[in-house]
Specification:
Length: 411
């Protein structure tokens, strides 16, 4: 036998026990698994996606951290790939493998260890973040936000619309493009707040300033926008100046808990409440009420977790790689905080399908510019965002999450 053939046979011998165990433990497989040695555990369902373990490190990640975290690390590092990312994600998210006893799990692990190789534990991806300090403290929240947004303004511009609006667009009322849908959403928020010329408005979690610019431009109000991302604030100020509303819009680098210069006639909080957390949600509502003038309106727009018994902090991958400390709460919990603060809810609207379509549009736009994305943010971050946008969309598609606009007022 030629030396090359002998070497290939030796490599495949290392994965053979694992392949046998996978076939035995999972007789029905809506996926195929191809190993770095060319061997394959075939799918049992026609048209299934194929996962590709590109190196022994793909298994080593999983041996080190069995479950979602290990899979996520292998994918982010580039050691695990898929021929169809959408289909592969659907399998990971929806497939319910048979229940395995302790003996089966031990056999699988023992078979995986030699296949993982002798190179030691793989490097944890440099993009993984584990936060220190008290959860949802001012300092820790600032670190979490900066981790997310410091990927760079130019990266976000690859898939957002021209206004750099980073929240649910409104397609359901006739908009044909993402740009039209985002302008429709901004106009709806302004209409619900009943903005009047000369009013003072607070934009909590202002992003790149799209609502502040819209409100100042079309309603002649003065706006204070706050963000925790320095890079975001810098670009927001440039966009404000470019729009010619610098005399009416101020962008601050600040936490909502640090504001002392109320009152405001209206407050918009768009896509920020899901980062407040259960321990701080009552303080959040009381703070906004304190900042709101009597008779003023609050528009709270945010993602909510639909299963009331679901742990909002359980998404290990997102917490390590996308939105550290994100904590979408059930709508009922947010509403309770609003009511406890002494605000009266006057209107509520749901936009679940709109956000699913928004995320589909963002995903398409990013996929169309992958080379630019990798140049701007690196291969690891690009892989993270391709997976994250799909995961977020699926949350809306299957009813795990929704997005609500809640309008409240202060007596």
């Amino acid at each position: 036998m030629p030396a090359t053939s002998t070497a290939n046979a030796a490599k495949r011998a290392l994965t053979l026990p694992l392949r046998r165990e996978l076939v035995r433990a999972f007789p029905q497989r809506p996926f195929a698994l191809r190993f770095w040695d060319g061997s394959v555990v075939p799918a049992t369902v026609c048209g299934s996606p194929e996962f590709h373990a590109r190196s022994p490190a793909a298994l080593a990640h999983f041996v080190r951290a069995p479950g979602e975290l290990g899979l996520g690390r292998a994918y982010v590092a580039g050691d695990l790939a898929a021929d169809d990312l959408d289909a592969a994600f659907a399998v990971v998210d929806a497939w319910e493998p048979p229940s395995l006893g302790l003996g089966d799990r031990v056999r699988l692990m023992l078979a995986a260890v030699p296949a993982a190789g002798t190179g030691g534990l793989p490097r944890i991806p440099s993009t993984e973040l584990v936060l220190d300090g008290k959860r949802h403290s001012v300092a820790r929240d600032a670190t979490a936000v900066r981790y997310h947004y410091d990927v760079g303004n130019a990266f976000f511009a690859l898939f957002l619309d021209a206004s750099m609006t980073y929240s649910c667009a409104l397609f359901s009322r006739g908009a044909r493009t993402l740009e039209e849908a985002q302008q429709a959403k901004l106009a709806l928020v302004a209409a619900k707040l009943d903005l009047q010329a000369g009013q003072r408005v607070l934009d909590v979690g202002c992003g790149w300033g799209s609502f502040a610019i819209h409100a100042a431009t079309y309603h002649d109000v003065s706006v204070v926008g706050i963000t925790l991302s320095a890079s975001q604030a810098e670009l927001a100020r440039q966009l404000v100046a470019r729009a010619g509303v610098g005399d009416r819009v101020e962008i601050r680098l600040a936490d909502y808990r640090q504001l002392t210069d109320g009152p405001f006639d209206a407050i918009a909080s768009i896509g920020m409440v899901e980062h407040v957390g259960d321990a701080q949600i009552d303080r959040y509502a009381h703070t906004l009420r304190r900042l709101l003038a009597p008779g003023g309106r609050l528009l709270n727009h945010g993602i909510a977790l639909l299963p009331a018994d679901e742990d909002p902090t359980s998404d290990v991958f997102s917490n390590r790689y996308v939105f550290p400390d994100a904590e979408p709460l059930p709508l009922s919990r947010v509403q309770l905080a609003i009511e406890r603060a002494g605000l009266r809810t006057t209107h509520m609207e749901v936009f679940m399908d709109d956000y699913a379509r928004t995320l589909a549009e963002w995903t398409r736009r990013l996929d169309d510019r992958l080379d630019e994305a990798e140049q701007l943010a690196g291969a690891e971050r690009t892989r993270i965002w391709r997976l994250y946008l799909r995961a977020a969309r699926r949350g809306f598609d299957v009813g795990l999450t929704s997005v609500y606009q809640v309008l409240a007022s202060r007596a």
